[in-house]
Amino acid sequence: MTHVDGNVLAGTLSEIFEQDMTTAAGECAGCGHTAELAVALVYLSGAGTVVRCSTCGDVLFTIIDVDGHPRINLSGVALLRMP
Amino acid sequence: MGRWKSGRVVSTREETPSGRSIVLDVPGWGGNIAGQHVDVRLTAEDGYTATRSYSIASADGSDRIELAVDRLPDGEVSPFLVDVLAVGDELEVRGPLGGWFVWKPEQTEPVQLIAGGSGIVPIVAMIRAHAAAGSRARFELLYSVRTPSDVFFASELEGLTTTYGRTTVYTREVPTGWPVLPGRVTREVLAEHTIPASERPSVFVCGPTGFVEAIADWLVELGHDPARVKTERFGGT
Ligand SMILES: Cc1cc2nc3c(=O)[nH]c(=O)nc-3n(C[C@H](O)[C@H](O)[C@H](O)COP(=O)(O)OP(=O)(O)OC[C@H]3O[C@@H](n4cnc5c(N)ncnc54)[C@H](O)[C@@H]3O)c2cc1C
Ligand SMILES: [Zn+2]
After folding, report:
1. 3-class DSSP assignment, residue B118
2. What are phi and psi of B58, to 5 degrees?
3. Which of A37, B90, B139, B142 lies in disulfide reach of A6, CB 3.0 to 4.6 Å?
4. Beta strands in B98-216 (DSSP E)
5. B73 near B204, Cβ under 8 Å?
6. Rounded Cα–Cα distance for residues B164 and B167 (Å)
């Protein structure tokens, strides 16, 4: 499966955070690298969305849809700095 | 931003054998920045929905937005947008989206634009915004397309060449009398036809994922600061 840039998450994340999150800085819990969400690697599929660190490839977070409501597991993000 | 709005198709235009542009009227849109995208949601009669992202080719501050879509033969959404959607139809859209892959007229540094196929869409928005603002920032485009008939927004891009510089690379078929054989963008082509890293340009690369990955890696090898290379991968191979 191919990937796209974190930029694609702007719409989905705006449902949750009510602002553009693609310029927010996320720290990877795996390698400690901090980068804008726009540069993360995003794998889209019918089952859900997997977002990986562009430096080490670890999963930063996942988003699945439960009855029309997004559910987000942020366990791979150590720190999220809002833009 | 996060709310779905209704857009009505105002006009469509065939751009290439496999793609067309679509102008939507979206009440309450309120303009967008060059490079942003929109999410489009289709809902079937049984309630099944499919959402895809499309870059916006326009950046004029109005409630009208222009998209351009390339048909993937086995795709779920793009064949509908290219072949079925008609003037007067309504479409759910969400946006404008994304604050990262954008160019604003107040930017004064040189800009290198690199597009593969339909990856030209957000780049066209930047070229239009640059021309409309009368910006003096140096703008250079490297555009990779399969054949001469696959060029999106061909006459407009041609007409604006007084405001930006352009190199076109044809991968399958070249125009008659073209000095070089068809071929892909290589590291050498990139080095020869783009603004050198020493001038510290902002670089925007957009197109199929494989194209973007190859280009972005070469740009870094050629000395560009990764932080100045912004990418928009469209998916695919
Ligand atoms: C931020 C962003 C902006 C985009 N802007 C544009 C745009 O301006 N114009 C445009 O035409 N497209 C654009 N795309 C791509 C678009 O979102 C869809 O992926 C594309 O239209 C295919 O959707 P589909 O439902 O027809 O195909 P799907 O049913 O999703 O996929 C069908 C098959 O094609 C493959 N595939 C998926 N996407 C691509 C692709 N882009 N290239 C080649 N193969 C692919 C899939 O792996 C699958 O095998 C953009 C993508 C992103 C992330
Ligand atoms: Zn990491």
Report:
1. helix
2. -105, 160
3. A37
4. 111-116, 139-145, 165-170, 202-207
5. no
6. 10
Complex prediction ipTM:
0.94
Taking only residues 13 to 42 of chain A, the set having a beta carbon closer than 8 angstroms to any beta carbon of chain B reads 14-15, 18-20, 22-23, 36, 38-39
Q: Is A12 left (phi over 0), alpha (psi -120 to 50) or beta?
A: alpha
The verdict on a CB contact (< 8 Å) between B237 and A7 is: no
A23 closest CA partner among B208, B101, B36: B101
- Spatial distance between the Cα atoms of A23 and B141, rounded to a whole number of angstroms: 25
Q: Is B64 an interface residue toward A (CB < 8 Å)?
A: no
Q: Across the interface, which of A7, A18, A44 has its CB nearest the CB of B101? A: A7
CA dist., res. A35 & res. B222, Å (int): 22
Residue pointed to by tokens 């603002």: B133
CA distance B94 to B3: 6
In degrees rounded to 5, what are phi and psi of residue B163? -105, -10
What does the pLDDT read at residue B4?
94
Asked if the C-beta of B53 comes within 8 angstroms of chain A's C-beta atoms, the answer is: yes
Report whether pLDDT(B90) > 80.
Answer: yes
Predicted TM-score (pTM) of the model is 0.96
B91 within 8 A of B10, measured Cβ to Cβ: no
Give the C-alpha separation, B229 to B213, whole Å: 11
Banded model confidence at residue A83, pLDDT cuts 50, 70, 90: confident
The whole-angstrom distance between residue B50's C-alpha and the CA centroid of its chain comes to 22
- A50 near A31, Cβ under 8 Å? no
pLDDT band at B101 (very low <50, low <70, confident <90, very high): very high
Average pLDDT of the segment spanning B131-152: 97
